[in-house]
Amino acid sequence: MKTIIEIRNLVKKFGDFSAVDNINLDIKEGEIFGLLGPNGAGKTTTISMILGIVKPSSGKILVYGIDNLKEREKIKHIVGLMTQETIVDSELTAYQNLEIAGRLYHISKNDIDAAIQLALEEAELTEFKDKKAGSFSGGMKRRLYLVKSMIQKPKVIILDEPTTGLDIQNRTQMWTRIKELNRKGITTILTTQYLEEADQLCNRIAIIDHGKIIALGTTSELKKMISKGQILEIITNKDSVSRIMDILESKFGLKSTAKEDKIESFVEKDEVETLSKVINTISKEKLPLISISLHLPTLDDVFIKLTGSSMRDTLGENKSDRSSVMLKR
Ligand SMILES: Nc1ncnc2c1ncn2[C@@H]1O[C@H](COP(=O)(O)OP(=O)(O)OP(=O)(O)O)[C@@H](O)[C@H]1O
Ligand SMILES: [Mg+2]
With 0-12 CB in 10 A as exposed, 13-18 as middle and 19+ as buried, what is 111? Predict the structure, then answer.
């Protein structure tokens, strides 16, 4: 795949503090690239430098071969940005918000109405086009803002924490939209604090912490980085948990942890063979097995391993739902 954004030795200092500390990255055409990191990791600062909004202390960024500091106007047409905060004018209608954005990008009078109608359709807001944006729900505002950020039809879209603050339903809708954009060939860079979001959407992920990239790769590459093994997950009746844990330890030498009716154990080698032997043993013992599976470690396992930081469920929507796992310092 062709590299379309080259970031070389990028540094941004605020006084003595390095918010971005020597980052090197190649973004490839057509990919969804994720910058995953906790609060203050340097995500917004990095993408602001890609757009030329923030001037690097040192280093270089080329977008389609163009030096972004020298030709900012050109970059604005190639790269769209949806910032972390939703920027729509509450006093204006959805149509008017898009009209103003279109004018800023010098879309011609002949083309602007068609561009707005298409954007409204994409945001599923056609029937609300004459309603003031101030009356919209958070999800509707975010959808309007996404199409507003792309009214100039950029080749690349940067989404800074596109779903932070959205509820699960609106977040899932935004994920579908991001995948659709990608199918249309739009290269996407997104920043996120949500592990599940990076896992679901991104072809490649850079994990960023304290301004440095600490890991880079596809989700499975990142997961494999921390170990060669897999997690064995068993769901049973609560009453049988301790009996099964004993079997795992005594017969297979596997230490395990349990939460309610779920047992997890790390299998370092011969994972599939071990899985079938465990199934046989549990059924011979006539213990109930609701489900049993193997999976690669999750991105949270990777983050903890690399940074030593812990993660907490912070959204409070559904604490058991993995999609609400967020990185927090
Ligand atoms: N203009 C500024 N002046 C001083 N420090 C800044 C400035 N902008 C950012 N920082 C600091 O740089 C660090 C990185 O900030 P940045 O906004 O890039 O983080 P982030 O990864 O986007 O975090 P969040 O998830 O909270 O948006 C933070 O410690 C922040 O306080
Ligand atoms: Mg940010």
Answer: exposed
Nearest protein Cα to ligand 1, atom 25: 39
> Do residue 197 and residue 95 come from a single domain?
yes
- Determine the structural domain holding residue 242 and report its residue range: 228-296
Contact between 50 and 156 under an 8 Å Cβ cutoff? The reply is no
SS3 sequence, 86-117? CCCCCCCEHHHHHHHHHHHCCCCHHHHHHHHH
Cα 46 to ligand 1 centre (Å):
10
d(CA 192, CA 198): 7
Q: What is the pLDDT of residues 125-181, one digit of tens each?
A: 999 999 999 999 999 999 999 999 999 999 999 999 999 888 888 899 999 999 999
Nearest CA to ligand 1 atom 10: 19
Q: Using a 6 Å cutoff on CB, does residue 43 contact ligand 1? A: yes
Does the beta carbon of 48 lie inside 6 Å of ligand 1?
no
Q: How far apart are the first and last CA of the chain?
A: 35
Residues 247 and 253: their CA atoms lie apart, in Å, by 9
Residues with CB under 5 A from ligand 2 (ion): 43-44
Clarify whether residues 96 and 244 are in a common domain: no
Structural domain contains residue 10: yes
